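Now for one specimen:
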Amino acid sequence: MNLQAKLIASALCLSALPFAQAADFEDFGRVVRVTPQVEQINRPRQECRTEYVQVQQPAPQRSVGGAIIGGLVGGLAGNQVGGGTGRSVATAAGAIAGALVGDRVDNSDTPSSGGVQEQAVKQCRTVDHWESRTSGYEVTYDYRGRNYTNIMSYDPGERVRLRVVVEPMQR
């Protein structure tokens, strides 16, 4: 062979070398042990309850309109009685008596004190709520007499599918 043909053959062999170096294929390994990887997660939540408490109510406002009208009517009626200084005394007494009667009539339905009333009060608090969650699986499997361990996102069952890569060793 001439030198040029030898160089071309050598170049072809060298360019094909990477294709001949590595080969990969699928196989299965026997699962020896699967251990779930569990993590704790806190999801706080609100717990609420309703309590009933007694509250003192303020006394309601009393109206003064009845006392004013009663005082005017009583004063006019007292002015009709007597004469001289007795008329002034009768007018004052009539106004006082009329004001008292008018107040009682106007505020007869109004209680004198507020009383006690039950009121609902909502009490809330935040409570920790811990949950366990599986984040992955530590899988130990046997392949051709050797044990290997990997973390996987799922439980593979009794056997695990493997991709096997074969490469020649470098010297």
